[in-house]
Amino acid sequence: MQNPSIKPQYAQIWQTVQLIPQGKVACYGQIADLAGLPGRARLVGKVLGKVPETGFRGQTVPWFRVINSQGKISFAPGSEYFEKQKQHLQEEQVVVIGARIKLKEFQWQPDLSEILFALEF
User: Fold this and answer.
1) Which domains does the chain have, with CATH numbers?
2) In the prediction, which pLDDT does 8 show?
3) Contact 92, 43 (CB under 8 A)
4) Considering the entire predicted model, what is its pTM?
5) pLDDT band for position 121 (cuts 50, 70, 90)
6) 73-80 mean pLDDT
7) At 62, is the pLDDT very low, low, confident or very high (cuts 50, 70, 90)?
8) Helix segments in the chain, DSSP class H
9) Which own/partner contact pairs does 20-24 have at CB distance under 8 Å and 24+ positions apart?
10) What residues have CB less than 8 Å from 77, skipping those under 6 apart?
């Protein structure tokens, strides 16, 4: 059963982020669109900062797979979260040069069927 204190938009975003495969990234706006919240890229960033430590529905939410539309890590270079995100991505074989990831190579491009059957909203 879903926690009633979790806003529906949060659940939609977390569930969508959980679908990003290992070794792939998605942009904030892309997640907003796939979650049924077009134009809400900033909300995605905000909500990813509120992921419960226990995850969502018993699964981790791979927040680190979400980057900005320029293909960059959004945290300030050298900051704790920048380094944490970069490390997680590199562990999944995503090439990070400076703060940039090549979207042509690593961006998640899901099938419509992949989304329709996996999302519950």
Assistant:
1) 8-118 (1.10.10.10)
2) 92
3) no
4) 0.91
5) low
6) 97
7) very high
8) 8-18, 28-34, 41-48, 80-91, 103-106, 112-118
9) 20/62, 20/65, 20/66, 20/108, 21/108, 22/62, 22/92, 23/92, 23/93, 23/94, 23/106, 24/65, 24/94, 24/106, 24/107, 24/108
10) 98, 99
